[in-house]
User: Fold Site-specific integrase from Butyricicoccus intestinisimiae.
Amino acid sequence: MPKKGENIYKRKDGRWEGRYIRGRKNNRAVYGYVYGQTYHEVKEKQRFAVQNLTQMSGNRTHEQYTLRMVADKWFYHTKPQVKESTYRKYQNVWTWYIEPALGNMPVSQLRNQHIESFCTELRVSGGVKKSGLSAGTVTAAVFLLRSMLHLAVKLDISVSCDLQAVTVRQEQTDIRVFTHNEQAVLCRYLLSNFSLKNAGILLCLFTGIRVGELCALRWENICLQDRVLCVQHTMQRIQTDTPFDQKTKVMITSPKSKHSIRVIPLPEDFAKLLASIQPESSSGFFLTGKA
Assistant:
């Protein structure tokens, strides 16, 4: 599927094709072409081709840089520094929210009022259903814009707005917590219908581990003799190469932060309960018993 303004298409043979203007003849555009196996491979080749033309012509001034051009440089520099899941999240925020609204705007003409209007529009009518986005998502967009403009300053590109002055109001929401009675009812049901899945729910209840950490947990991470479990990994489902195909893959990576790698004590009664279902092999996943 082509993305408006980018001239990148998926061909019938499964490859991606990108075109760019490499010159003009008789006032008509002359196109160059690049090819690749994925959308992002072609986009990067296209970006390098345009960049090389720009360097050769020497005609572009920093005042002519659009936010999209700065974003291309930012993604190129950022990709090796962050986890793949984080990189995909940045791409989605850029592709779905920032680029359509601000991608074509010259950075030198970007003002605080543009950003504030952009944030208001996202909060009021953003998203697929046009029902507005959460404050957290809009804050992520502002963070991304701030990082990109910080790179623009490093590249001596004129930046006239101060995103430190742009804030997104965070709404405080009440956290729903089980009462003692609700917890007792849940535990009775899980114990009377005991299974690996229900043991996982109990484990989350007793230790506070995240769902992704539970999915990545292996029996080898649990020491029943010492009654502890070690959280070392998390499981995530992320998008693959392009936001348009909506294909995903499962990844097991390090937890959210280095502080998330931790050792958690287990209640004695629960450790005994786990011992009754511990498989012979300690190399399998906790929820399935399979490697």
Notes: Residues 1-60 form one domain. The first helix runs from residue 39 to 57. The longest strand covers residues 16-25.
